[in-house]
Amino acid sequence: MKTIPSKRDDLQIEAEQSVEGPGFMLTSVEKLTGLAQARSLWPVTMGLACCAIEMMGTGTPRFDMSRFGWEVFRASPRHADVMIVSGRVSHKMAPVIRNVYDSMPEPKWVISMGACASSGGIFNNYAVIQGCDHIVPVDIYLPGCPPRPEMLINAMLELTRQIERRPIFGHREEIARAVEAAALAATPTHEMKGLLA
């Protein structure tokens, strides 16, 4: 199968190239395992607000998630490996989301779908949590209010690309340290100048 290309350069690729790999045999096993995991993602049904309608629309024949192998939305978190947090997260729902996340088996991934799930959106008040990353670790942030089904498919493709390259053996700690060092050495955002500066 082909790997899904990224539309951006990222620090992960540079860090992976700077760390010596585990050797031919284990690398091949990692690639095979990554392909198998990336091609069989099963999301858990987790709709919280209006973004859930767009998430449901992604599964319809018009957008057809089944061509990527993601059509099985599981009702039980014990059978799912991707949580799509779609919609605003209230303080009342936070323990439920964490309980669902803790019930999912490893490895597991989280997509934060929409502005409300990612940053609280327009609801800057006491009832709504300002980003689901306060509750669960997020792998992909999907902007929009609400994001279109095509955007969710793109986020799933980016997650697939990350899973394909994810190391499963001992050198993953070295890669994580190299990524962190590259991120700390990068130019801070406040020093970056745009085209109009």
TrEMBL record:
From the UniProt record, list the reaction(s) this protein catalyses: a quinone + NADH + 5 H(+)(in) = a quinol + NAD(+) + 4 H(+)(out)
Question: Which of this chain's residues are annotated to bind [4Fe-4S] cluster?
Answer: C50, C51, C116, C145
Q: Which Pfam families match?
A: Oxidored_q6
**Membrane protein topology class:** Peripheral membrane protein
Q: Which cofactor does it need?
A: [4Fe-4S] cluster
A single GO BP term for this record reads: aerobic respiration
What GO cellular component entries does it have?
plasma membrane; respiratory chain complex I
Where does the record place the NADH:ubiquinone oxidoreductase-like 20kDa subunit domain? Answer: 50-158
What keywords are assigned to this protein?
Answer: 4Fe-4S, Cell membrane, Iron, Iron-sulfur, Membrane, Metal-binding, NAD, Quinone, Translocase, Transport
Q: What class of enzyme is it?
A: translocase
Kindly give the InterPro entries that the UniProt entry links to this protein.
NADH_UbQ_OxRdtase-like_20kDa, NADH_UQ_OxRdtase_20Kd_su
Q: Where in the cell is it found?
A: Cell membrane
The cofactor binding remark recorded in the entry reads:
Binds 1 [4Fe-4S] cluster.
Q: Which GO terms describe its molecular function?
A: 4 iron, 4 sulfur cluster binding; iron ion binding; NADH dehydrogenase (quinone) (non-electrogenic) activity; NADH dehydrogenase (ubiquinone) activity; quinone binding
The EC number on file is: 7.1.1.-
The UniProt family comment states:
Belongs to the complex I 20 kDa subunit family.
Subunit field text: NDH-1 is composed of 14 different subunits. Subunits NuoB, C, D, E, F, and G constitute the peripheral sector of the complex.
- What the protein does? NDH-1 shuttles electrons from NADH, via FMN and iron-sulfur (Fe-S) centers, to quinones in the respiratory chain. The immediate electron acceptor for the enzyme in this species is believed to be a menaquinone. Couples the redox reaction to proton translocation (for every two electrons transferred, four hydrogen ions are translocated across the cytoplasmic membrane), and thus conserves the redox energy in a proton gradient.
User: What protein name does the entry list?
Assistant: NADH-quinone oxidoreductase subunit B
Organism of origin is Actinomyces radicidentis
Q: What is the lineage of its organism?
A: Bacteria, Bacillati, Actinomycetota, Actinomycetes, Actinomycetales
